[in-house]
């Protein structure tokens, strides 16, 4: 008797869950969800890509999945991406709540802030300031070139040896952001720098991995002493240190003569007076950490992809060097302006970004209201996953969708041309805020390195492996490289 009562109760609660996770009317199609888990058990969480590929072949360009009880819609292909992120820009410009990342950032800052005035004003402020307005005497370009000189010194010291360049490029990208935000770079072995690098690495590992998934889908488990508690704690430690840096800036700043992003933010608060909302210290810290997170792995993984292709496509490397030598003849340093005279180099950098597809699933979006896409009904608050890889490798959009070939960005006259499907920074109102900075970094760093060094696949390097490691930011597998100084240079 008791047994059958329990059974009955189980069936009823199961039914209740099934009803709860049933797709809304006219929702994009997808596999049937299981209560509590949604479709999670149907995916290999270590690397869901192959499973997802299967689903998109079966269900089409717009399909849906359940993460626990939460429905998500996946967008594939350029026409869908444009209709959603540009055509219905506002409807699709939200960010999801209730994820581990939201709890770290408390909905403040830029990346995870939902669509609204605080996000808009911080985004505008950061864009303006990064565009070199109000960033003081040292230009963005000088800051980047300054960091490059440390990278070059390091590589010169290792010339002829085979090294893994991962941490070097990572440290350099991080330091460029530090210099913009805090006014100075750090030595790579500085205590705070080390703590920051470690926090970012561990937190992205946790947020990427199964524990992040557990946190995001099962709210009941959040207070247990599981690894995501460490993510929260480490984030807090770095936050406290940044608070200290802000206090130091307050004590030493000269109003309206900003040395860096923090000074500019303090100026902005002062300009707005008593009621400077939504600008305050809490928002500033999260905005700073956002830029650090968003600007480090992305840039350094792209540089690592570039070097991997230089070493394995020596004809491409040589042709870049030829163009660089010609254009920069007699000049001590490259400047960002020089890109207009380097169509081939530009094509190579864009092609690297295309094949690297550094943020394959962009950053997740969320619908801000009930909306419609490709004839489907999508309610407000639905998680939206833009599959940028599907556009960067889309068959009808590229001359050579599956190869590494700079001709994808060159027209018949050998001029640089950017197809519309080039969207590694995403599109629409949420498009990458650091695109200008990232493009400047990639150009200055790669040109300087190619001018100075020859990149060689070392004999002990094994077979090159181009398949990426899956993650929120995708990266090539670790590899080793040998650098050789190029002869005949004046500097
Ligand atoms: C090669 C390097 C980079 C790539 C491929 C990249 C790509 C992206 C992508 C795909 C997004 C998501 C856009 C969306 O939600 O639709 C994004 C957002 C963002 N990126 Fe980047 N990014 C790069 C470098 C940087 C740098 C250097 C910075 C800053 C200093 C930066 C700051 C941001 C910020 C703040 C956002 C959030 C924008 C918002 O939510 O409004 N990124 N990036
Ligand atoms: C994204 O697109 C790529 C290329 O078309 C595909 O291999 C991958 O499975 C897609 N991912 C998702 C989540 O749909
Ligand atoms: C990069 O920084 C980390 C952390 O400070 C350090 O352990 C590593 O040795 C640095 N790498 C290089 C190449 O300097």
From TrEMBL:
- Cross-referenced Gene3D superfamilies, in alphabetical order? Cytochrome P450 (1.10.630.10)
Q: Which domain of life is it from?
A: Eukaryota
Q: Which cofactors are reported in the record for this sequence?
A: heme
Cellular compartments annotated: Membrane
PROSITE patterns, alphabetically?
CYTOCHROME_P450
One example of the protein's molecular function in GO is: heme binding
Q: Which SUPFAM superfamilies match?
A: Cytochrome P450
Q: Name one GO biological process term.
A: organic acid metabolic process
Which interval of the chain is the signal sequence?
1-21
Q: Which Pfam families match?
A: p450 (PF00067)
What keywords were assigned to this record?
A: Heme, Iron, Membrane, Metal-binding, Monooxygenase, Oxidoreductase, Signal
Record-level GO cellular component terms: cytoplasm; membrane
What does the entry list as the binding residues for heme? Answer: 432
Keyword Phosphoprotein set for record:
no
Checking InterPro entries in the record gives: Cyt_P450, Cyt_P450_CS, Cyt_P450_E_grp-I, Cyt_P450_sf, Cytochrome_P450_fam2
Q: What is its main location?
A: membrane
Q: Which PANTHER family match?
A: CYTOCHROME P450 2F2-RELATED (PTHR24300:SF327), CYTOCHROME P450 508A4-RELATED (PTHR24300)
Q: Which family does it belong to?
A: Belongs to the cytochrome P450 family.
This one is known as: Cytochrome P450 2F2
Where is the organism placed in the taxonomic lineage, from the top? Eukaryota, Metazoa, Chordata, Craniata, Vertebrata
């Amino acid at each position: 008797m008791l047994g059958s009562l329990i059974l009955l109760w189980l069936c009823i609660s199961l039914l209740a869950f099934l009803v709860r996770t049933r797709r809304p009317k006219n929702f994009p199609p997808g596999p049937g969800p299981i209560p509590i888990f949604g479709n999670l058990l149907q995916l290999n969480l270590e690397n869901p890509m192959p499973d997802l590929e299967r689903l998109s072949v079966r269900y089409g360009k717009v399909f849906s999945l359940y993460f626990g009880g939460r429905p998500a819609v996946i967008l594939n292909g350029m026409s869908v991406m444009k209709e959603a992120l540009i055509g219905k820009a506002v409807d699709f410009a939200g960010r999801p709540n209730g994820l581990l990342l939201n709890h770290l950032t408390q909905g403040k800052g830029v990346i995870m802030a939902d669509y609204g005035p605080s996000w808009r004003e911080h985004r505008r402020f950061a864009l303006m300031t990064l565009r070199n307005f109000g960033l003081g005497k040292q230009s963005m370009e000088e800051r980047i070139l300054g960091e490059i000189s440390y990278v070059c010194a390091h590589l010169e010291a290792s010339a002829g040896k085979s090294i893994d360049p991962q941490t070097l490029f990572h440290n350099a990208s991080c330091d460029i952001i530090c210099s913009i935000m805090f006014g100075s770079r750090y030595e790579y072995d500085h205590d705070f720098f080390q703590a920051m690098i470690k926090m970012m690495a561990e937190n992205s590992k946790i947020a990427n991995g199964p524990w992040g998934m557990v946190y995001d889908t099962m709210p009941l488990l959040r207070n247990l002493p599981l690894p995501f508690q460490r993510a929260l704690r480490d984030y807090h430690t770095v936050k406290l240190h940044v608070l200290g840096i802000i206090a130091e800036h307050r004590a030493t700043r000269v109003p309206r003569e900003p040395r860096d992003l923090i000074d500019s933010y303090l100026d902005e608060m002062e300009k707005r007076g008593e009621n400077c909302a939504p600008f305050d210290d809490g928002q500033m810290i999260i905005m700073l950490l956002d830029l650090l997170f968003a600007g480090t792995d992305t840039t350094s993984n792209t540089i690592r992809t570039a070097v991997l292709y230089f070493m394995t496509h020596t004809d491409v490397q040589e042709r870049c060097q030829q163009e660089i030598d010609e254009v920069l003849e007699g000049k001590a340093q490259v400047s960002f302006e020089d890109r207009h005279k380097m169509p081939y180099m530009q094509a190579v950098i864009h092609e690297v970004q295309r094949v690297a597809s550094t943020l394959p699933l962009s950053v997740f979006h969320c619908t801000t209201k009930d909306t419609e896409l490709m004839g489907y009904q999508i309610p407000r608050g639905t998680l939206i996953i833009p599959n940028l890889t599907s556009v960067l490798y889309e068959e009808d959009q590229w001359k050579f969708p599956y190869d590494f070939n700079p001709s994808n960005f060159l027209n018949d006259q050998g001029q640089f041309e950017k197809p519309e499907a080039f969207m590694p920074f995403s599109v629409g109102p949420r498009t990458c805020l650091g695109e200008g900075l990232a493009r400047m970094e990639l150009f200055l760093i790669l040109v300087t390195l190619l001018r100075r060094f020859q990149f060689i696949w070392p004999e002990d390097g094994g077979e090159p492996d181009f398949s990426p490691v899956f993650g929120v930011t995708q990266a090539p597998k670790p590899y080793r490289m040998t650098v050789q100084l190029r002869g005949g240079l004046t500097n």
